[in-house]
Automatic annotation (TrEMBL):
It is found in: Membrane. It comes from the Bacteria. Keywords: Membrane, Transmembrane, Transmembrane helix. The keyword Membrane applies. The chain crosses the membrane at residues 7-29, 35-56, 81-105, 111-134, 168-188, 208-231, 243-267, 287-309, 330-348. InterPro entries: ICMT_MeTrfase. It comes from Roseovarius rhodophyticola. It holds the Pfam family ICMT. Coiled coil: none annotated. This is Isoprenylcysteine carboxylmethyltransferase family protein. Its main location: membrane. Gene3D superfamilies: 1.20.120.1630. It is a multi-pass membrane protein.
Amino acid sequence: MKKLDTVASNWTALIGCVCLGLGIAYRAVVPADNAVSGALFLVFCYLVPVALYELVVRKIHRSPSTGLNWEQIRAANPKRVMVKLVGFGAVIMAVIAIHAVFRIYAVERLILPLAAMQILLPLCLPIIIAYFVIIDRRMRDPHDGYHEFGLWLLRRNPNPDYSILKDFVLGWAIKGFFLPIMFAYLTLNMPGLHENTVQLAQGPVAAVLYLTTALVVVELTIVVVGYAMTVRLFDAHIRSPNGLLGAWVVTLICYEPFRALASGTIYPYRTDRDWSAVAGEYPLLMWPWMALILFAFGLWVWATAIFGLRWSNLTHRGIITNGPYAFTKHPDYVAKSLFFWLTAAPFLTAFTTWQAVTATLSLFVINAVYYGRARMEEKHLSEDPAYVEYALAMNERSVFRRLARALPFLIYKAPNAQSDDKPVGKVDAQQGLPAE
């Protein structure tokens, strides 16, 4: 069976998670002076070893997909670099201004990433300037989004390339929307790492609750790093942002301030109790139930960690075919859906039959949202032939291939593929449909 190319490394994921786990263990014993510095500590616990491994061992900076040329380095062009720095500075200020004016998130949450920026600015500013100078000399095509945006701001280009500008603005809209709130979530979870360690000695249910909190911190740290590190040096730049309206709709409804549906506010899928309140009532189920919860969340974190420095919603930053993605195209959504069912467990936690039925139906609505996200992602990524090859191969290799044969709408079809009435069997590599 042909091995598929991937931009990710299993070792990167393992090294990052081990170092981050050690950092979390340290913070569980020795709390930070404040939550913001504690969150930044974990960010660096993950970022530094992963970045070093990617550069020193994998030599990812020499990958052709970075768009960098390390053999023929052009002469420095200070004017072009200054234009790019103008573009970079302007887009940062624009993101801050938009949040300040429109108050997309609550002020108390926006204060947290702003405090982090204040701490990092003296350290990061010289690194950012040096990065632009170094990378500009090595880019095969130095005319990138920062350059185009800077020229447009300075009114030096009467005929801007609007396709580059569009992708640049969309990419920063994604980054500017998600990065602040993800860092805020990470910061808000920091105190619990130390304060709730007593749960580890309060029985298995409480211990699982603490472990899930720790896994939340792992996942959020990787996500924060992913949104922040959209840089070519690590082959983590945005190849293309998802410009499909449907993709934005099904994604944004899962996050603040639009998450009334996905959080269960409109269609409550959680009852007045959760799994931890009733686990003791089902002693035969308790241990396998808790094991499944940890498995689901562990799979969720693994599906995030395999991205290394590349995790992000609504972007194409390289095709990943290994790790959990070797078993199914959307392991993160599978894991999230399973986790929601196991922790809400409306069929066990509801007080009335009607409550159980409505909450269960609401969970199916949430599943439908994530199915929509998966389809929208596939539609976007299918612009890359590497993803088409991967997705067609998964029609045969996925752990859900038998389910897909029973439910043909789950079968991936290549772009412009024409459906037909071929019987179920091996996958036709041209159409993405079961064939004999």
